[in-house]
Amino acid sequence: MPYKADTEIEHQDFAPSKYIVSSQHRRVGNPNKSIWTIDFEEEINCFIQTITQKWVSGVEAWGLKLNGTTLEVIGVTNTKKELKIAKFVDGTSTNVWHGYPADHMTKSQDRPTTIILKNWVDNGYITKAKMNKIRQGQLCIL
After folding, report:
1. DSSP assignment of 56-79
2. Cα(110)–Cα(64) distance, rounded to whole angstroms?
3. pLDDT (tens digit, 9 = 90+) per residue, 5-33?
4. Are 5 and 22 in contact (CB under 8 A)?
5. Rg of the chain, C-alpha, whole Å
6. Which ranges of the chain would DSSP assign to H, the alpha helix?
């Protein structure tokens, strides 16, 4: 299914929520924002997995692009540093979400909650040591 940026997307796997692929986080977007390197469909699939796995805390959620238990790169910072954690937000509390590659090292608001990080540890996606580094905003190779 072809998706279009900046329009609300409805999907049975995350209904009643809606999702917007934000052009601000694409190559044509804002140069000061992190940029997705995955395509629209992979971004939406990441959101679907996030909702399905319940990696949600209020109006914020965090996701991963997994290949088995290996985390794949989903985006880059404005300085081209690779990112592997996605953050999704319902910024207006109306169940309309958008997401971006999260930079846990430089932005404290991009760090997943401890509960979500523990879930990732329990599922073998990250180690406990990496969980602690993410929580503290330290460099860690995911």
Report:
1. EETTEEEEE-EETTEE---EE-TT
2. 13
3. 888 999 998 989 999 999 889 877 677 89
4. yes
5. 14
6. 40-53, 114-122, 128-136
Residue 64 β-bridge partners = 85
Contacts of residue 62, Cβ cutoff 8 Å, sequence gap at least 6: 50, 55, 85, 86, 87, 88, 102, 112, 113, 116
Sheet with strand 35-36: strands edge to edge: 35-36, 75-76, 82-83
Q: How many C-beta atoms surround the C-beta of residue 4 within 10 A?
A: 10
- DSSP SS3 for 131: helix
User: pTM score, two decimals?
Assistant: 0.93
